[in-house]
Design a protein that fits this description.
By secondary structure, the protein is α/β, with parallel strands linked by helices. It is built from ten helices and eleven strands. The longest helix is centred in the N-terminal third of the chain and has 21 residues. The mean pLDDT is about 95.
């Protein structure tokens, strides 16, 4: 019988902990932490995700600012917004929600964000510090996954962890963080991707399988071994006429069947997603505290 890793409940616990710390900051006379978000276009997934971040800010006692622009914004105009946020002393941290329109270079925008306000943890400076083991803003989704493993007291030392997906947002940083001499960590990590041969052979060897592909139902029960820990990062909208809204969120794992073999497994929704937002709140609080004398 597998244990369902409840990211929603864990994230709520983290938000409560952050609120206590924010209340103490305010009591001591320090400014309220302030998170800003830049949202370009009208993508439903991005709007929903940013909305969740703004609601989380309210819950933990942060101030928040949402800057919305349509898809016609130029790269130069977006860079001007980034520069304004970099130099606004009231903003402790901010995010530019991805993906961006095709005519805008995501890399150029990410590099323009001040590393001291990069609470998503994507800036090359923060990535470099993460690789070197120096304190920094950790990428929010990998950070959230590690926190789930820690709070559920899942053993990682000496375990074989297979990560499917090598993005700079999840797979690559997570592979580095899990191999660290720390807890959660000390794993032997195999990072796989679209060109990996005999993938199923590797997934069957995994004590911990983390899937971040964006391909609904990609991992089936015959690809995992008994009692493996399954972390599903995928959140893809798929058509579902049985739902009033006409769609549902699907993970990269065939949850219904894989849960019968797993020791622990994250659902979609309600698994990794809420933890990503909780990690963003932790990073924002860290950014605000970093400005204290």
């Amino acid at each position: 019988m597998s244990i369902r890793i409840d990211g929603k409940a864990t994230a709520a616990q983290i938000r409560a902990e952050i609120k206590e710390k924010v209340d103490l900051l305010k009591k001591d006379g320090f400014k309220t932490p302030h998170l800003a978000a830049v949202l370009i276009g009208s993508d439903g997934g991005s709007q929903s995700y940013v909305g969740g971040k703004m609601r989380a800010c309210t819950e933990v006692g942060f101030e928040s600012t949402l800057i919305e622009k349509d898809n016609s914004i130029t790269e130069t105009e977006l860079l001007e917004i980034v520069d304004q946020l970099n130099h606004n002393p009231e903003i402790d941290g901010y995010i530019v929600q991805l993906p961006l329109p095709k005519h805008i270079s995501e890399q150029k925008i990410l590099e323009a964000i001040s590393p001291d306000k990069d609470v998503d943890g994507f800036h090359p400076v923060n990535m470099g510090k993460m690789v070197a083991g120096i304190d920094c803003f950790k990428p929010a989704t990998p950070f959230g996954i590690l926190e789930l493993l820690r709070r559920y007291e899942i053993e990682t030392t000496g375990k074989h962890c297979v990560v499917i997906g090598r993005s700079h947002i999840v797979g690559t940083p997570l592979s580095i963080m899990l191999s660290r001499n720390s807890y959660p960590g000390n794993c032997t990590v195999t990072l796989t991707h679209s060109r990996t041969k005999n993938l199923e052979t590797l997934t069957k060897m995994a004590d911990i399988l983390i899937v971040a592909l964006g391909q609904p139902g990609f991992v089936t029960d015959d690809m995992v071994k008994e009692n493996a820990v399954i972390i599903d990062v995928g959140t893809t909208r798929v058509n579902d006429d049985s739902r009033e809204r006409g769609w549902r969120l699907s993970g990269d794992v065939d949850y219904k069947n894989v849960k019968n073999k797993a020791s622990y497994i994250t659902p979609v929704p309600g698994g990794v997603g809420p933890m990503t937002i909780a990690s963003l709140m932790i990073n924002t609080l860290q950014a605000a505290k970093g400005k204290r004398p």
